[in-house]
Design a protein that fits this description.
This protein has helices at residues 5-11, 38-47, 60-70, 90-95, 98-112, 123-128, 132-143, 161-170, 198-205, 220-224, 240-250, 263-277, 284-303, 317-326, 344-353, 364-374, 385-389, 407-431; strands at 13-14, 49-50, 52-58, 83-87, 116-121, 147-151, 183-187, 210-214, 218-219, 229-234, 254-256, 307-310, 330-335, 357-359, 378-380, 394-396. By secondary structure, it is of the alpha/beta class. GO terms for molecular function: oxidoreductase activity.
Length: 433
Amino acid sequence: MAMDGKELVEKLAKLSQVQSIKDIPQLTHALFPGTHCPLMGAAMAVGGIKDSLIVVVGTDECTYYTKSMTIHSEKFGGIGGRCVSVVLDDHDVTFGSAEKVQEAFKEIIEEYRPQCVFLVTTCVIEIIGDDFDAISEGLSKLYGIPVLPVHTEHFKCEDHLPGLERTITVCAEMMKSCDCENSVNLLGQRMGDFATTELYAMLQKAGVKIGLQLPCGCSVDDIKNAAAAKVNIVVNDIALPLAQKMQEKFGIPYVYFNKFVIPEKIYEAYKNLFGYLELELPGELEGLYQNAREKIEKNKGELEGITYIYGNTPYAVFEMNCFLSSLGMVPQVIQTNRYTEADEPYAKEILQYTDPYVCKAANIAPLQYVYDVLSPYLYLGHEFGNRLRQKGIAIVHSDRGSGMLGFEVTGYLLQQLVKSVREAKEYRKELGL
């Protein structure tokens, strides 16, 4: 059954009306293609930690879901790999799961002999109220290895990211004090190879050693020795709680170096990083900054006045839309599942240019009826390209940017935007728009 595009647009909020995430509506009650559970996020994080084991405690549906996801991952080792489960029945739900978990744990330790176990609870555990923090502490003392509780109830959150955040945050519990090695830890990178990034190249040229890389690839020993770093580099919000814990526990400062696209933000992050490292700022960074500014000026004219709907990209939502608005582009709808204090300055700057609609992501099914009402040139994120083309809209592919850090992000995004604008104009010409 077709929806009324105008009615859907009327359901949206304006950015100027938003004070918190509660003020951001969703287009329909059901989200398409649906959200991922935090259990998935926990599994993704443990996948990057060698010598560790994930033990999922919950119903057969939850445990099957996790095993079926990890069974195809080389990181986990297939069917007999690093993902096991404790399946609860009606008796466990009624009388508590502690006894079954303790019995299962003895078998798990004997068979797998892990260096660390992430004991992951699911919704049913959180509902019945079993104390898995205490259970984990008891198992850790009994077997002499870190047993770390990770809570992944889905009814309290929107997506899988809290599972990632909680898994890497609890890693602080097994870190120990170490002598400083003047190295840096990379916290929060989920995709891509850090060794291919501009940031990595700058650190290598300065002779800086890379320590822990969590959750994109490390060992349990790497985590235990993470306090040897002089600085933590946070490249995603999921790692902020861990960096803050390490600063409080070990006095290690952190630099927020997200996938910024605004050149000034990137330059500021570089300056903060090399300042903490007590190293001279690499001279070529000034050239990279100026090159990014030149690319902006070169492409600004072609982007000015271009309307778009923002869906989902590897970049920080409001920082990116602030940048695009400064180029003269016009966001019509911004989709997001988060709105924090850190987003407010960017939102205020966007409002100096325009006041876009906002709604929760991802909901591309009802959005197809909004396209006829708003008629944007571009869609940034994941959508069906052929469906967009029939509406005179080009999709901006930006996933390759998920493996970038530094001024390279700005250049890549501008390239993709210009390419898509030209495609959109061709589509609109074909359609007589």
